[in-house]
Amino acid sequence: MDKNRAGYTEGFVSILVNTGLFGLKLWAGIVSGSIALTADAWHTLSDSLSSIIVIFGVKLSSKKPDKEHPFGHGRWEQIASIFIGFLLTLIAYDFIKDAILQFKTRETADFGTIAIVVTIISILVKEGLAQYAFYIGKKTGNLSVKADGWHHRTDALSSVIVLIGIFFSNRFWWIDSVLGIIIAFMLFYAAYEIIKDAINKILGEKPSKELIEKIETLVESNFDGNVYPHHYHIHNYINNKELTFHIKVDNKMDVFSAHAIATNIEDMIKKELYIIATIHIEPKGFKHEND
User: Fold this and answer.
1) What pLDDT digit, counting tens, does each position of 181-220 carry?
2) Do strands 228-236 and 241-249 pair parallel, antiparallel, or not at all (unpaired)?
3) Domains and CATH numbers, the chain
């Protein structure tokens, strides 16, 4: 699956569907006088804004490496994810502010059949969009698309809460205000997870256990256990990954032979794992503080 094309497609589909849902939910919110349903409508429109960010993120991250950015522009995906997270935070703050104001004035919503039907449609459509975005994100490894999927998921969940509230609105006058606050806290949590994931990628991660096992299996199967890889570091630039690690070889091995082994391992990793590796050679008996 082409990563950039899939990202563009997910973004455009999201924009079209969310804009339509926004109009439908806003109309239902105005008719019913519900702050929770109206807030839910603006949450849906914010999905369109986040999808626009996804499209720009894919466009910027797909640029080829240049002199100023020799490792490419892939980390624009993380930057796009952070923008989405902050957007969710601002929307959540607005929801809490409006919900508290409604609670103080003791305003109530007049839910009806229209509100129920529109909310059910929203739940089904938004969860469908979430599943689509998660699928694209998993297949392509695109973090901003994954973040967009969580945005869809939180919108679907907020609509579930609104639907539950509709059925209890006759018994509790304050239910609409409380629902608005609950939705806001859901958004805060989603924003936290999205921003945390993106920042962790930018700051740097340790290589996964699965990656290390794959490398060690490659080395062991080709060099009969005479080469010992260790001390791994990975630099994730999204569109390309740079891996550095050490190998211990026989103390008496000449430089040419050791270099040939390192080069062979680097070539295998590039061919099998699509990662650029740089290997430091050490004599088997050498010890340093990181061993």
Assistant:
1) 887 787 788 788 878 877 877 776 778 888 888 888 888 8
2) antiparallel
3) 3-203 (1.20.1510.10), 209-283 (3.30.70.1350)
